[in-house]
Design a protein that fits this description.
216 residues, mainly alpha, 8 helices, 0% strand
Length: 216
């Protein structure tokens, strides 16, 4: 929930990708692909389009990725790894459960504002990943959901796990809706409203609202 599950980085990179120049070129390809997937969608974007935007020839992309789906898989995986690192950092903080929940919501909101309009692409094309990758992603999904549910139950001790799981799934759906917002909407305003709605909804569960957390 609220994450792209972390799996081992993939791709079929040649020796060139391990050089500094190769790493910069690979990063440029991934950045160009993300922008084009946002603007046009995954299926309407070709490798030639991505190469042109990244300043490399379409065939040169094959030094780094075996196909457009391979490129997308790596993009999903690297976004997932970055998110997992953030989740682990937040959960390792020596803070009260409510403060930790706030920080985790802050991180989730920031991720949605950064990558939200790519999530429909990620979820639609997830089925194209190989079986091992899908199994890894499903396993990490379960672990991440369990972490959110456990944290929410710490904040709301009277809440049962099933209700907490449903609530987490509903909040995830709400946060995904950021991709439908017009680009002109102020991002700071969106972040504030999203956080207040998510935190308020979770704290309203069970009819007993815990004491407000100290602002971060």
């Amino acid at each position: 929930m609220l994450t792209f599950p972390a799996v081992a980085t993939g791709g079929t990179e040649g020796d060139d990708a391990r050089t500094t120049k190769g790493e910069r070129r690979r990063a440029a390809i991934l950045a160009a692909a993300a922008e084009l997937f946002r603007e046009r969608g995954f299926r309407a974007t070709s490798l030639d389009d991505i190469g042109a935007a990244a300043g490399v020839s379409g065939p040169a992309i094959y030094r780094y990725f075996s196909s457009k789906h391979d490129l997308l898989a790596v993009m999903i995986e690297e976004a997932a790894i970055a998110w997992r690192v953030t989740v682990d950092q937040v959960l390792s903080e020596d803070a009260a459960p409510l403060v930790t929940l706030e920080h985790l919501i802050d991180a989730a909101v920031a991720l949605e504002l950064k990558n939200g309009n790519l999530r429909p692409v990620f979820h639609q094309e997830r089925r194209t990943l190989d079986d091992n990758a899908r199994r890894r992603m499903a396993r990490i999904d379960r672990v991440t959901m369990a972490e959110w549910v456990h944290l929410l139950c710490e904040v709301q001790p009277d809440l049962n796990e099933e209700d907490a799981r449903i609530a987490v799934m509903m909040i995830d759906g709400m946060l995904r809706s950021v991709s439908t917002l017009h680009a002109s909407v102020d991002r700071d305003r969106v972040a504030r409203v999203m956080k207040e709605m998510a935190l308020g909804a979770l704290l309203a569960l069970g009819g007993t609202r815990p004491a407000a957390a100290v602002p971060a």
